[in-house]
Amino acid sequence: MRIGEIAALVGVTSRTVRHYHHIGLLPEPQRRANGYRVYTIRDAILLARIRRLTELGLALDEVRDVLADDAGRELAEVLGELDADLARQEHAIQKRRKALAALLAGPLTPDAPISPALAELLKSAPVTSSPTAAKDREHLILLDGVVGGDAVYAALRPLADDPAVVPMYERLDELEGAAADDPRIATLADDLVAAVPDEVLAAIPDSGPTATGFEEALLADYSPAQAEVVRRVMERVTARLRRRSS
């Protein structure tokens, strides 16, 4: 993604992104030979988290402290101070205090802050060491900051109890390092598409991330064979959405 694309995806300005680079809050990405910055999905995840923290009222120095402390202790301290200030302005910022209360209910994690609906979904997710499951979690957190989706999270909730979910993540893990024409790709894509409930399709909003480079950056987060599985799943889910709306 280019700077304008990542800025549009996360909901900030290109000037803001450059400012975060200038003060060292957001690391500078690699540049192509022509000098243009190239942003990855990892950059978007970090930028979205910075945006969510600043929306809660944290100063940039406080955001820096939170990002530097993965254990969440600094975040808890900063949010506690912010809560005391919000209490003095209860009428004007009641909605923000409600979101803050949900965060302070904890447990605080390096993912925070996220919406209560997504927090509930992630809390019920099966415990697994799967690397692709961890990526899926990060992508949900990114989209939560970009478009939200409480109805989608509610529709995904039954999958958390589906014993077939973790094995499919593990099958995707096994494709790490495989070629993009690996024969396992087609079967896994079929199984993943079949696992998407109709309720999830019904809950997906008409508008979503529209940045030109978003899909490319998402697929670049996977190995070639894994990316091919994800690409096929995205294409077929999009086709199902079109049939549903026609």
From TrEMBL:
<dbReference type="InterPro" id="IPR047057">
    <property type="entry name" value="MerR_fam"/>
</dbReference>
<dbReference type="InterPro" id="IPR000551">
    <property type="entry name" value="MerR-type_HTH_dom"/>
</dbReference>
<protein>
    <recommendedName>
        <fullName>HTH merR-type domain-containing protein</fullName>
    </recommendedName>
</protein>
<dbReference type="GO" id="GO:0003677">
    <property type="term" value="F:DNA binding"/>
</dbReference>
<dbReference type="InterPro" id="IPR009061">
    <property type="entry name" value="DNA-bd_dom_put_sf"/>
</dbReference>
<dbReference type="Pfam" id="PF13411">
    <property type="entry name" value="MerR_1"/>
</dbReference>
<feature type="domain" description="HTH merR-type">
    <location>
        <begin position="1"/>
        <end position="69"/>
    </location>
</feature>
<keyword id="KW-0238">DNA-binding</keyword>
<dbReference type="GO" id="GO:0003700">
    <property type="term" value="F:DNA-binding transcription factor activity"/>
</dbReference>
